[in-house]
Specification:
seven-stranded parallel beta sheet, 16% strand, 27 helices
């Protein structure tokens, strides 16, 4: 059909579409995002608009990629994201819209109309000329725009994404049981011919019922289908079918069994190989509107079309060393296993096909990390530090304690990095209380003693304020100026601090994300220290670095990271570990107690308070909710002050309080005016009160293991014996567990545990005080998909690999990747070109590999 001259051309239509999508985004970003809270359902609006646009026409490649990225930004519920993430996504969306406007105005012929189609001739569907792996999934047979949106819930955008979406379990339906040998109550598969098919309708329930009888040489069996009227035309008398399901009693009891059918397959003389029964069947994750059965049909079509085209990217010597299957066979076998494949290995992901795909996935990631590290180490270092600055000696003499051997070793590694010709990108791991702050102070003193500024960015205001107080106490006596950049307080005070930072008068700059706001400019930033980096997105860290002409970067974390995660999350950083605690500290004794043992817990609490110590009582909520049975911090503080702890002074701090109120309470607690601090998890990090010896955690089963370990780390910071009391409301009538160094009776069996994972978490915390042991246990319990929230860590989400199961593969893949980059830094050898293209395709955007050449 020829467009009428009065109709707008495609470019004009696209401009109108852009205006419609841009209005709410521009409104939300206006006035420094002041209107953002008032904008509702933005993610749904943008996502639906993009999908509609993509279904209307085929766009040039650059426009299509930009549209897909725009939808990706609004795929999640914006209102559930942190404010800084919402703002970052809106800023990126605005950039994408501007790029699209320029593309739409391009007169180079990208928007020409296709030639008129002669309707009497066959119409061929033409897909974009892209490599098979990059073709949008909507062009796959049987998908289309509507099903595309369903597949995108699984992260499937392209054909490659689909083929790397593996089954989560398998069912062996390959054994056909003769009907005469069926056993009541068990799952079985049969093959027979339909000898009766009768459609009925139940008037009362308005149910469509299809009643069939299947017969083989040994007997016959009834099967009933509810509300599936479309099967009536499929299950006609004389049709051969395969059925899988559980055998249950029929209307006349077990003498006339019937099958509750889970899967069926029509078998014909000219039919294709069965997909759903008669074989080992892959089972995929489902969503509303998309079933595992539909996924199998899609995978079969994709494999038939593209499996032979799958490009082998792993070098031949590497595949030979590890006896890895060819990629074509691995993809085929992982979706549709060969008969006789061990079912246990399939479900655990241990078949040769699974291990082949896991190796490639981990190897390509490690190759990207190795390439990124190479680029960073080859950067020209724009800062020069003086290792002989007298300030380092002054700091050493001013410290009121001796450094541990581990601290000294890590400081030596950091100072060596800073005084080398290559930029520093180092991660320092250490358990709570090991002394990372002093290590960071040494690095900042070297920077400032060399004429540069140093910035320290923390995830919360409480932690930033804690660092500010600590650094002022340590560094101002040796002549360094320390300031706190805050998002709150009076405007005049904020302006004055920013002026000091811009002029260079402020040498040590500490703050939260306020440090990277547009109003903060450094005179000469030489070192960026990022504390608890997993709480920040990549963009914030990148912005901070860009403010200071590529300063050296030191990342601190008190959340111990399992070795496998460290090789992926921070695989491009050099890693130092402080694995030694300051002398004189005693392991915290940890008790797991039930509500019936609350009196025992309060007695420990009162004994410590009467000895002049202090205590924390932590609740998961701020105030009671009708939807939960948890006691909240507000009511808990009032109850403790009125009853069990009436003789002591009880304070309260939580995240909903104003900064000034929190500061007052924390100052009183540090002075000892408040003896018991009732709190939510705002004290998880950044609070250092050595006199506190008791951490009592209410409803401990509701906390994560890493969070529990962080909370326990608030005590045990002096030479006094400290205690952690885990109050688990569902532990009934048992005896308490005492942790390391304790004497107690083992806990009796859990009579009503709502979650076995909760039990494992608390047991793990009781057994060990070692944060690295606890982190490994947490990874095992929760699995890599939930550990600390990969999105917050910047953690890649794997399709084939599992970091718990495949730790050995990861180690080998990392060794091979770094060796290959050392041998062929730019991967320019002919045997490595396909590998380089795959690495950039999968990781260029996520790991900022644009500088890899």
């Amino acid at each position: 059909m020829i467009r009428r001259s009065s109709e707008p051309n495609p470019s004009e239509q696209f401009q109108q579409w852009l205006d419609r999508v841009a209005r709410p985004i521009e409104f939300a970003t206006r006035d420094a995002f002041a209107h953002l809270p008032t904008v509702k359902n933005l993610n749904h609006f943008v996502s639906s608009q993009v999908m509609q646009a993509l279904s209307d026409r085929v766009y040039p490649r650059t426009i299509e990629a930009a549209l897909l990225r725009l939808r990706e930004l609004f795929f999640e519920d914006q209102q559930r994201l942190p404010a800084e993430d919402q703002q970052r996504r809106l800023q990126e969306a605005a950039v994408i819209l501007e790029v699209l406007r320029k593309e739409a105005r391009d007169p180079a012929g990208a928007w020409h109309e296709p030639e008129p189609v002669v309707m009497c001739e066959p119409v061929m569907t033409v897909t974009p000329s892209k490599p098979w792996w990059a073709q949008p999934i909507r062009f796959a047979k049987g998908v289309g725009p509507k099903r595309t949106s369903l597949l995108q819930r699984f992260g499937i955008e392209t054909v490659e994404d689909a083929l790397w979406t593996l089954p989560w379990r398998y069912e062996d339906r390959s054994v056909m049981t003769p009907i005469g040998q069926l056993v009541p109550g068990v799952q079985a598969s049969i093959c027979g011919t339909i000898v009766r098919s009768e459609a009925k309708r139940a008037r009362r329930r308005r149910l469509a019922i299809l009643d069939i009888v299947v017969e083989d040489s040994t007997g016959h069996l009834q099967a009933v289908f509810f509300n599936q009227p479309f099967l009536e035309s499929l299950f006609i008398v004389g049709t051969s079918v395969m059925l899988t399901g559980r055998l249950v009693a029929g209307a006349q009891g077990w003498g006339a069994m019937r099958m509750e059918v889970a899967q069926y397959e029509v078998v014909g003389a000219e039919s294709e190989a069965p997909l759903h029964v008669g074989r080992i069947v892959p089972v995929y994750h489902e969503t509303k509107g998309w079933t595992s059965r539909q996924m199998r049909v899609l995978m079969k079509g994709l494999l038939d079309s593209h499996a032979a085209e799958a490009q082998e990217v792993l070098p031949v010597p590497l595949r030979a060393r590890y006896r890895l299957l060819p990629i074509q066979q691995a993809i085929q076998d992982v979706h549709f296993p060969q008969p006789g494949t061990d079912g246990g290995q399939l479900d655990r992901g241990l078949t040769p096909a699974h291990r082949r795909l896991a190796f490639e996935e981990l190897f390509v990631l490690q190759l990207a990390l190795a390439s990124r590290q190479r680029v960073m180490k080859e950067e020209v270092k724009l800062v020069s530090f003086n290792p002989k600055t007298p300030l380092l000696g002054k700091l050493d003499r001013a410290l009121p304690f001796d450094l541990t051997t581990a601290q000294t070793r890590v400081i030596r590694e950091i100072l060596s990095d800073m005084t080398s010709r290559k930029p520093m990108n180092r991660l320092v791991q250490g358990d709570v209380g090991c002394g990372k702050t002093v290590v960071a102070a040494q690095a900042m003193v070297l920077a400032c003693g060399s004429g540069y500024q140093a910035a320290l960015m923390a995830p919360t205001e409480i932690l930033a304020e804690q660092h500010h107080r600590t650094m002022k106490r340590l560094l101002e006596p040796i002549g360094l100026s320390v300031v706190l950049v805050s998002g709150g307080g009076r405007a005049t005070a904020r302006k004055a601090v920013r002026a000091q930072v811009a002029s260079g008068a402020a040498q040590i700059v500490i703050g939260t994300h306020a440090v990277i706001q547009q109003g903060v400019a450094f005179a000469k930033l030489g070192l960026a220290v990022v504390d608890e980096q997993h709480r920040f997105g990549v963009l914030q860290r990148k912005t901070l670095i860009e403010k200071g002409y590529k300063p050296d970067v030191l990342v601190l974390t008190a959340t111990p990271i399992p070795r496998t995660l460290a090789m992926t999350v921070y695989g491009d950083l050099d890693v130092s570990v402080i694995d030694q605690m300051p002398p004189g500290r005693k392991p915290v004794r940890t008790f797991l107690l039930s509500d019936g043992q609350r009196g025992r817990a309060y007695q420990i609490l009162r004994d410590e308070l009467r000895s002049g110590r202090q205590a924390y009582v932590v609740y998961p909520l701020v105030e009671e909710s009708e939807k939960t049975d948890l006691q909240a911090a507000l009511q808990g503080a009032e109850q403790l002050q009125a009853d069990e702890l009436a003789e002591f002074r009880v304070g309260l701090v939580h995240g909903r309080m104003k900064s000034e109120e929190k500061d007052q309470v924390m100052a009183s607690y540090k002075k000892g005016d408040i003896q018991v601090l009732v709190s939510t998890t705002v004290v998880e990090v950044g609070v250092d009160v050595p006199n506190a010896t008791v951490m009592m955690i209410e409803h401990a089963e509701r906390f994560g293991l890493a969070q529990l370990h962080q909370l326990r780390g608030r005590v045990g910071r002096s030479g006094h014996q400290s205690y952690c009391l885990l109050m688990a409301s569902w532990v009934l009538g048992g005896k308490g567990i005492m942790g390391q160094g304790g004497k107690g009776t083992p806990l009796s069996p859990y009579p009503s545990t709502p979650s076995s994972a909760a039990r494992e978490r608390l047991d793990a915390l009781v057994r060990s005080n070692d944060g690295f042991v606890i982190a490994e246990e947490d990874l095992r319990i929760r699995g890599p998909g939930e550990f600390f929230g990969f999105r917050q860590w910047g953690m890649p989400e794997f399709r084939a690999a599992n970091l718990v199961r495949d730790a050995d593969i990861l180690q080998h893949a990392r060794q091979e990747a770094f060796a290959l980059v050392s041998q062929d830094p730019q991967l320019k050898a002919p045997a490595h070109r396909a590998l380089r293209e795959t690495m950039l395709r999968r990781w260029e955007a996520k790991l900022e590999l644009g500088s890899v050449s």
